[in-house]
């Protein structure tokens, strides 16, 4: 056990380096984190007031909802979404979501870029349902 | 390990603490409850348990008669056009009698019938060999309406289905399909595909769910009849009763659902 001091020293250095991102952000550069993005609502989306589900739900669960839509639409042919208020919508990314949120760059991409996710929806689905370019 | 009263009491205490954590876990990491939303068939959706098609080939004399149907199909579904035949994508196309019906080999057949263009497409077989070949269930026979559907989200591009299909109804996207489409002519309501997936006719399942007939049926001016094969009073069943029809390679036992009046 003669190397105790070296082992402890090594552990301290390791922990210091390992937690470097945490204390660097907290102590050296506080308040410089990228600000959370603001999404832009189109006039049509503002006028509609509520999305297919409440805003809070959409913020946290839109990916699960879209996943369910694609599963049910493709595999079971049930392509009409009925929300808790009983309103009906076509379960379609291009034709329902992007009909209101026609500003993909300011609505979808901003948050997705911020949290560094790259959904592959747009490899196939067209992002301009009305054909405007 | 030595067991003792003291040790038993210790373990029981730890277990009690563990159990008491359950409500905390529930409160902090509750599984999202879905409320009361649901997905269902639309009010206008056409309902059938096995869709089928009857093509009256007597109404198609030349290639000019079939071209508008092919165009309607390919425009609706953003099917790309590549002039290199190795990259060709086909949902609905025309072929010669002997390619469409290679098992009908009678000599001295009617010249007129022999030289008509024959429209061919996915047969939406009742016993589809492509579905058995697919390792990811990307292609499957939909129980609700009998359509052999492609789930593009699952296709891994292995092309086993293409090898399995006896009708050559499937095409592989060797190139990015958007390169073969004119942007202004794309149908924005329907997705394109991506490079590396297999595609084929989907019997216009997206149009059926909106209460519309398939695009080719609509463009055929009555030469193609579409309906539910299981409903004895449907239009297809009436046409099948009144006309002699043939199917492609019916000897293989795939039970194709596209019938031809010759």
UniProtKB/TrEMBL annotation, chain A:
Keyword annotations: Membrane, Transmembrane, Transmembrane helix
InterPro entries listed in its UniProt record: DsrJ (IPR047668), Multihaem_cyt_sf (IPR036280)
Membrane spanning stretches: 6-24
Protein name: Sulfate reduction electron transfer complex DsrMKJOP subunit DsrJ
UniProt source species: Desulfatitalea alkaliphila
Upper taxonomic lineage: Bacteria, Pseudomonadati, Thermodesulfobacteriota, Desulfobacteria, Desulfobacterales
UniProtKB/TrEMBL annotation, chain B:
Domain 4Fe-4S ferredoxin-type, residue spans: 146-175
PROSITE patterns for the chain: 4FE4S_FER_1, 4FE4S_FER_2, TAT
Keyword Iron among record annotations: yes
Keyword Metal-binding: yes
Transmembrane segments: none
InterPro entries attached to this UniProt entry: 4Fe4S_Fe-S-bd, 4Fe4S_Fe_S_CS, DsrO-like, ET_IronSulfur_Cluster-Binding, TAT_signal
A GO molecular-function descriptor: 4 iron, 4 sulfur cluster binding
Signal peptide: none
UniProt keyword annotations, A-Z: 4Fe-4S, Iron, Iron-sulfur, Metal-binding
Lineage top rank: taxon: Bacteria
Annotated NCBIfam families: DsrO (NF045797)
Listed name of the protein: 4Fe-4S dicluster domain-containing protein
Source organism phylogeny: Bacteria, Pseudomonadati, Thermodesulfobacteriota, Desulfobacteria, Desulfobacterales
């Amino acid at each position: 056990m003669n190397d105790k001091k070296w082992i402890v020293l090594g552990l301290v250095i390791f922990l210091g380096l390992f937690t470097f991102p945490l204390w660097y952000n907290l102590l050296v550069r506080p308040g410089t984190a990228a600000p959370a993005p603001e999404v832009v609502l189109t006039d049509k989306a503002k006028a509609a007031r509520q999305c297919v589900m409440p805003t809070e739900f959409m913020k946290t669960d839109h990916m699960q909802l879209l996943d369910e839509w694609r599963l049910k639409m493709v595999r079971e042919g049930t392509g009409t979404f009925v929300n808790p208020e009983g309103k009906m919508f076509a379960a379609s990314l291009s034709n329902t979501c992007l009909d209101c949120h026609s500003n993909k760059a300011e609505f979808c991409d901003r948050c997705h870029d911020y949290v560094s996710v790259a959904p592959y929806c747009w490899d196939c689905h067209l992002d301009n349902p009305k054909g405007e370019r | 390990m030595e067991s003792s009263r003291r040790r038993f009491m210790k373990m029981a205490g730890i277990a009690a603490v563990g159990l008491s954590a359950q409500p905390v876990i529930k409160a902090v990491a509750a599984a999202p409850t879905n409320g009361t939303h649901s997905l269902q068939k639309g009010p206008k959706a056409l309902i059938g348990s096995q869709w089928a098609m009857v093509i009256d080939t007597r109404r198609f004399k030349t290639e000019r008669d079939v071209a508008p149907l092919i165009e309607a199909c390919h425009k609706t579904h953003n099917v790309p056009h590549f002039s290199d035949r190795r990259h060709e994508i086909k949902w609905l196309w025309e072929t010669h009698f002997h390619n469409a019906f290679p098992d009908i080999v009678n000599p001295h057949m009617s010249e007129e019938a022999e030289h008509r263009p024959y429209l061919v497409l996915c047969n939406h077989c009742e016993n589809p060999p492509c579905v058995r070949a697919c390792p990811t269930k990307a292609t499957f026979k939909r129980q609700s309406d009998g359509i052999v559907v492609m789930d593009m989200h699952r296709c891994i591009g292995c092309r086993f289905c293409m090898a399995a299909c006896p009708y050559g109804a499937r095409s592989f996207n060797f190139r990015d399909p958007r390169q073969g489409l004119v942007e202004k002519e794309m149908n924005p309501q329907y997705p394109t595909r991506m490079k590396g997936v297999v595609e084929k006719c989907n019997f216009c399942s997206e149009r059926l769910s909106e209460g519309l007939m398939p695009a080719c049926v609509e463009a055929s001016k009555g030469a193609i009849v579409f309906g539910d094969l299981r409903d004895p009073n449907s239009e297809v069943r009436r046409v099948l009763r009144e006309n002699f029809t043939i199917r492609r390679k019916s000897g293989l036992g795939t039970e194709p659902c596209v019938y031809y009046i010759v």
